[in-house]
Amino acid sequence: MTAVSDREFLLSLADAADEVTLPLFRRQIGVDxxxxxxxxxxxxxxxxxxxxxxxxxxxxYPEDAILGEEYGEDRGGSRKWVIDPIDGTRLFITxxxxxxxxxxxxxxxxxxxxxxxxxxxxxxFLAGPWGAEHLRQGMVxxxxxxxxxxxxxxxxFSTTPRHFEGDVRSRYEALEAKTKLTRFGTDCYGFxxxxxGHADLVVERDLKPYDIVALIPIIEQAGGxxxxxxxxxxxxxxxxxxxxxxxxxxxxxxxLNG
Length: 258
Fold this sequence. Notes:
The chain is 33% helix and 31% strand. By secondary structure, it is α+β, with helices and mostly antiparallel strands. The strands form 3 sheets. It has an 8-stranded mixed sheet, with helices on both faces. The protein has a 5-stranded mixed sheet with strand order 12-11-13-15-14, sandwiched between helices. Strands 1-2 form a two-stranded antiparallel sheet. Strand 11 (155-158), helix 4 and strand 12 (181-184) form a beta-alpha-beta unit. Helix 5 packs parallel to helix 7 (215-221).
């Protein structure tokens, strides 16, 4: 496969998912809970979108591996497609259009291409060896990180401060207090706003591979940095720092590690 065909195939996978998710958004649909002691929702939109993506991958690239949030892992060769059919299901079931379908491609253990599709706003954030792009209404705009270097000047996103518990709580609160502005609950959309130059920092805990693999190329190709809190790669998930510049990334990592 060439870079161009990777791009077109990601777009076709997003089209297949959008056909499932968009008709169910802001409709009264059933919601199941995956957990006993907490609330982790899943809907037929999640399951149906992942099935549609998997079917198209299996038809086009039967030797490739697939990892998805709802249906687990099908092992294959050196290429792996990593799927979160609806990243932000809580947003989906509450009618907030900041959820998205995440589809990432890994080759030999590295995230090389990815897409975030938000069909209600008509947006795709897409990246690979060809670069990083924002697609909407037929317009293609390059994604470019901005140059913020100091935490005091940074806009930060995170899912919820509840994720920062125990011995990291005070360190996270010190980081949040030092930022210019912090917003919560944006899920995958916040990462894309970082890549598009509207924010500077994303901090998260305990991400799974399907939460982040698609977003790694989008941020990196836009000029940003993605790592775990030790500075390592995020393809296997974990605690995350994504930042606009090396200086901002290093400052956030120092504060979070204490």
